[in-house]
């Protein structure tokens, strides 16, 4: 997905680094970073942009993803790693 | 001559960490196993953490002894000085006394070694031979690299590629301290190989880096993983900041009206705040504020109104500063510290109203950080600028109310390795934004029929 905002710069609170909007759009692979609206909405209407550019499935997946408890997510990662062992 | 710094003698360093889990008025819900839905058992985490750390993660013991070997390493820079920001006070011209714990004096330049050192130590005594971790721009990775070197443990850091390329100095710090720092995704793990197969030019993400570090720990004998924020044991180790501050404030005969910190994952904020939260539980009066990043201007532009508390509009209506859920989905501007990677203890204390969350946009935080650097001299880490912005707000409020206040905050680290962030700000690359009034009015239509608080 290409947008007019791709080269705009912000500071990423997750990385502690300056990154462009194009990075936020693909931070989670197929999906944008979970923080993208929070980080960018003041600069432009990112909600409308995402609704326009994401497929219905992607949008639903994006808005329905709720952050997991950290310990639970670690357990999940451990089990997936053990399966790959 | 006016006093600036308050020191503790090395012999006065706290000998125990404070564990807030012992004193929570309402218990926290246990984390659940994602597969079984049952509370997680200690052995579930044994693949990545040694048992001594797992026991601390689950501990409800109020005071936990700091091992002598850890104290000895802490003494390299601890007890950290308590400063009075007299020049910043003069600049603001408000009726406030501003004190701050300078955690930028650690060898890694931040509060992170407070947790990295005990983690390396406990792994060493548990028989761990090697440690892995992930890092973004490298603050945690560099702290752990130093700590592992101190205890003779090899350390591998999976650093998110975009930061690996953009932020070479912390990578060099890690290398200098003897750690192996790799750009994630790598071809050393299955997770990394899968990502690279699909996106050969992947810039990486924290999610990928953490998956790689955990896979490495799980699949390599005698290897464990270390996480630098969020978890209970990390907050426990950081409590030395607040315990020292209390002793230093006692020396001055002062008790703060407001205790503040910046909140990313919660570790530096918790480090200063939790020993004061303990005072709140016993009825002492102190306001505790966590400052976090947002770009959203709701605190200044949006009214306090009822709106939905989650994106699916499935929660009851909650009172919040809002621009309406159609403009910015409610949890994003209202959730604050309650969501998105925040330490569960901090989220719990916010829900129970012991901690007040505040959100600040990056422009306001850099403006505050520049003011700080030009008055106090020290250049703050960009994250630290969030709490400085909150300090400015509290000082202005004190002026409006005509009340004298004592503010204590955690100056969590210096920004000497983050000067590119200042460059981006000073050269106008980070953009300011003023929400047009007509856009606000349009957004608020979504909640016009909701009840008013």
Unreliable spans of chain A: none
CATH class of the largest domain in chain B: Alpha Beta
Largest sheet composition of chain A:
2 strands, antiparallel
Q: Which parts of chain B are unreliable, with pLDDT below 50 for 5 consecutive residues or more?
A: 308-321, 328-340
What would the keywords be for this entry?
heterodimer, B: 453 residues, alpha/beta, Rossmann fold, four-stranded parallel sheet
Quick take:
The complex is a heterodimer of chains A (85) and B (453). Chain A has 85 residues and is mainly α.
Outline the structure in words.
- The complex is a heterodimer of chains A (85) and B (453).
- With 85 residues, chain A is mainly α.
- Chain A has one domain (9-84).
- Chain A contains five helices and two strands, in the order ββααααα.
- Chain A has helices at 21-25, 36-40, 46-53, 56-64, 70-84; strands spanning 9-12, 17-20.
- The N and C termini of chain A lie far apart (35 Å).
- The mean pLDDT of chain A is 86.
- Chain B has helices spanning 51-58, 68-74, 86-92, 113-126, 139-150, 161-166, 168-176, 190-198, 206-219, 232-238, 240-252, 267-281, 298-301, 330-335, 344-351, 362-376, 382-401, 419-426, 437-444; strands at residues 5-6, 16-18, 63-65, 82-84, 96-102, 130-135, 155-160, 180-184, 223-225, 258-262, 287-293, 304-308, 317-321, 356-360, 405-411.
- Chain B has two domains: 43-56 and 110-231, 3-Layer(aba) Sandwich (Rossmann fold), CATH 3.40.50; 240-447, Rossmann fold.
- With 453 residues, chain B is α/β, with parallel strands linked by helices.
- In chain B, the strands form four sheets. A seven-stranded mixed β-sheet of chain B has the order 1-4-5-15-10-11-14, with helices on both faces. In chain B, strands 8-7-6-9 form a four-stranded parallel β-sheet, with helices on both faces.
- The longest helix of chain B is centred in the last third of the chain and has 20 residues, at 382-401.
- Classes of the chains: A mainly alpha (85), B alpha/beta (453).
- At the A-B interface, strand 1, strand 2, helix 2 and helix 5 of A face helix 6, helix 8, helix 9 and helix 18 of B.
């Amino acid at each position: 997905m290409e947008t007019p905002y791709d080269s705009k710069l912000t500071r990423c609170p997750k990385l502690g680094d300056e990154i462009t909007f194009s990075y936020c759009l693909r931070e989670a692979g197929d999906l944008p970073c979970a923080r993208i609206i929070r980080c960018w909405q003041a600069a432009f209407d990112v909600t409308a942009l995402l609704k326009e550019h994401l497929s219905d499935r992607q949008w639903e997946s994006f808005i329905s993803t709720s952050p997991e408890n950290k310990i639970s997510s670690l357990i999940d990662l451990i089990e997936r790693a053990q399966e790959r062992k | 001559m006016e006093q600036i710094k308050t020191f503790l003698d090395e012999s006065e360093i706290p000998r125990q960490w404070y564990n807030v889990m012992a004193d929570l008025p309402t218990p926290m819900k246990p984390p659940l196993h994602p597969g079984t839905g049952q509370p997680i058992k200690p052995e579930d985490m044994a693949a990545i953490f040694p048992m001594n750390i797992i026991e601390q993660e689950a501990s409800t013991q109020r005071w936990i002894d700091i091992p002598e070997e850890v104290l000895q390493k802490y003494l390299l820079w601890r007890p950290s000085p308590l400063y009075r920001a007299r020049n910043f006070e003069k600049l603001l011209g408000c009726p406030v006394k501003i004190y701050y714990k300078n955690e930028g004096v650690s060898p890694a330049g931040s509060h992170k070694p407070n947790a990295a050192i005990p983690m390396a130590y406990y792994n060493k005594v548990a028989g761990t031979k090697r440690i892995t971790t992930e890092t973004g721009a490298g603050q945690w990775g560099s702290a752990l690299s130093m700590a592992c070197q101190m205890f003779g443990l090899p350390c591998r850091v999976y650093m998110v590629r975009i930061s690996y390329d953009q932020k070479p100095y912390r990578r060099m710090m890690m290398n200098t301290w003897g750690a192996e720092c790799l750009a994630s995704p790598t071809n050393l793990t299955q997770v990394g190989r899968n990502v690279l197969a699909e996106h050969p030019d992947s810039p990486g993400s924290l999610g990928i880096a953490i998956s790689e570090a955990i896979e490495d720990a799980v699949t390599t004998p005698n290897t464990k993983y270390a996480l630098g924020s969020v978890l209970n044991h990390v907050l426990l180790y950081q409590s030395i900041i607040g315990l020292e501050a209390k002793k230093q404030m006692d020396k001055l005969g002062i008790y703060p009206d407001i205790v503040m910190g910046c909140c990313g994952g919660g570790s530096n904020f918790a480090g200063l705040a939790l020993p004061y939260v303990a005072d709140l539980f016993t009825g002492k009066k102190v306001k505790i504020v966590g400052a976090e990043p947002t770009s959203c201007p709701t605190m200044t532009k949006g009214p306090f109104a009822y709106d939905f508390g989650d994106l699916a509009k499935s929660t009851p209506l909650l009172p919040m500063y809002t621009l309406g859920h159609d403009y910015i989905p409610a949890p994003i501007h209202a959730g604050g510290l309650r969501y998105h990677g925040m330490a569960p203890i901090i989220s719990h204390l916010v829900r129970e109203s012991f901690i007040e969350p505040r959100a600040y946009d990056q422009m306001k935080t850099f403006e505050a950080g520049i003011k700080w650097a030009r008055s106090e001299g020290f250049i703050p880490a960009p994250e630290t600028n969030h709490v400085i912005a909150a300090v400015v707000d509290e000082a202005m409020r004190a002026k409006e109310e005509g009340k004298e206040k004592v503010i204590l905050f955690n100056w969590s680290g210096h920004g000497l390795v983050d000067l590119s962030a200042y460059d981006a700000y000073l050269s106008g690359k980070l953009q300011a934004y003023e929400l047009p009034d007509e856009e606000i009015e349009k957004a608020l239509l979504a909640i016009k029929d909701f009840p008013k608080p």
